[in-house]
């Protein structure tokens, strides 16, 4: 970047007030030393609390993966009718924090709204489990879900992958891996402000520095943990950093959204643009005045409601349900 002073897009007034209220409880920059405290400070929710007031049942399966096993959480309506969509979920958290229940409020809405079967994977986290473990764990979970469509009760031709932030990056990487390895055929790929470029060199990655949520310093922390010394070199796989993929043909219809005031804005816009350039199908939303994860931190804000409604509307269109 040049020495030109970069002006930061303004925050939506309602969301700006949320940021001010968060204050020091959620620092803009997450450093490596803060990872243990961040993990310990996020309590693992009780499934019964997540499902309170919802007629949804939960089941768990452990599946073997290279070097161990991972847990899958399976959610279905209590009166589930077979033949609807199946949604495979990869959670956010910068590749370093979070669990399979991160983002549950939104994917449980999808269970209710679409009578969908949702499977959320507990992929292993960096830096203890660097690349390619997170994407391989996620891919193994997707393969298991696809192979058990009849047992789980969803239509094989309505299999969707969805994830937010780091989970969006994993969803993009798994979509590429499924294409290249002739794996499960995906009906759609839902990428919510995905983390897809390890290089951290875009304009937006420089604009969001020591402000908002998940700034460029946090981005360095997450990518360094995932890739180590390989970061920013030619040794980085397109499955780890999908923004590096030059061939985006053969992907399922893809939804990409991001916020105007977040690090990932420019890499996400470029990803959708390259899909169009190569004749693919994509829908792109850039939510004005949003910060990273705005809809998760303030789900009742007007912009958050519009963003989540846009994802639901897109799923209706691509799935024909």
Description of the molecule:
The chain is an alpha/beta fold and 321 residues long. It has one domain: 3-Layer(aba) Sandwich (Rossmann fold), CATH 3.40.50. The protein is 37% helix and 19% strand. The protein contains twelve helices and eight strands. It has helices at 13-22, 35-41, 47-50, 104-114, 133-147, 149-152, 166-180, 203-207, 216-227, 265-277, 294-297, 302-319, and strands at 56-65, 68-77, 84-90, 117-121, 154-164, 188-192, 254-259, 282-287. The chain has an eight-stranded mixed sheet, sandwiched between helices. Helix 5 packs across helix 7. The chain is globular and about 55 Å long. The mean pLDDT is 96.
Order of helices and strands: HHHEEEHEHHEHEHHEHEHH
Q: Count up the domains.
A: 1
Estimate the mean pLDDT confidence. 96
As a whole number of angstroms, the C-alpha radius of gyration is: 18 Å
CATH architecture: 3-Layer(aba) Sandwich
List the uncertain runs. Answer: none
Which features does this protein show?
Rossmann fold; 321 residues; 8 strands
Please give the structural blueprint.
Elements: H1 13-22, H2 35-41, H3 47-50, E1 56-65, E2 68-77, E3 84-90, H4 104-114, E4 117-121, H5 133-147, H6 149-152, E5 154-164, H7 166-180, E6 188-192, H8 203-207, H9 216-227, E7 254-259, H10 265-277, E8 282-287, H11 294-297, H12 302-319
Helix pairs in contact: 5-7
Could you write a compact summary of the structure shown?
Helix 4 (104-114) links the parallel strand 3 (84-90) and strand 4. Helix content is 37%, strand content 19%.
């Amino acid at each position: 970047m040049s020495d030109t002073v970069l002006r930061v897009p303004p925050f939506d007034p309602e969301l700006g007030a949320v940021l001010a209220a968060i204050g020091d409880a959620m620092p803009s920059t997450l450093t490596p030393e803060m990872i243990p405290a961040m993990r310990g400070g996020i309590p693992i929710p009780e499934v019964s609390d997540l499902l309170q007031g919802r007629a949804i049942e939960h089941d768990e399966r452990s599946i073997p993966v290279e070097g161990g096993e991972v847990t899958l959480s399976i959610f279905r309506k209590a009166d589930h009718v077979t033949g609807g969509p199946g949604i495979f979920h990869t959670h956010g958290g910068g590749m370093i924090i979070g669990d399979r229940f991160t983002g549950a409020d939104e994917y449980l809405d999808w269970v209710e709204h679409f009578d969908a079967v949702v499977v959320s994977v507990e992929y292993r986290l960096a830096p203890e489990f660097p690349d390619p473990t997170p994407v391989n764990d996620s891919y193994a979970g997707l393969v298991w879900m696809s192979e058990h469509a009849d047992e789980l009760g969803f239509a094989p031709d309505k299999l969707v992958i969805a994830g937010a932030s780091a989970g969006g990056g994993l969803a993009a990487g798994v979509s590429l891996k499924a294409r290249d390895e002739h794996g499960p055929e995906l009906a759609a790929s839902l990428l919510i402000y995905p983390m897809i470029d390890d290089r951290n060199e875009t304009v937006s990655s420089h604009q969001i520095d020591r402000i908002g949520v998940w700034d460029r310093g946090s981005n360095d922390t997450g990518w360094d943990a995932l890739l180590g010394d390989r970061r920013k070199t030619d040794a980085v796989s397109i499955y780890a950093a999908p923004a590096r993929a030059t061939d985006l043909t053969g992907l399922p219809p893809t939804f990409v959204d991001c916020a105007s005031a977040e690090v990932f804005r420019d890499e996400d816009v470029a990803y959708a643009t390259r899909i169009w350039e190569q004749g693919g199908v994509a829908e792109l939303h850039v939510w004005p005045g949003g910060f990273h994860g705005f809809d998760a931190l303030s789900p009742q804000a007007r912009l958050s409601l519009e963003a989540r409604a846009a994802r639901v509307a897109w799923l209706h269109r691509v799935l024909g349900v």
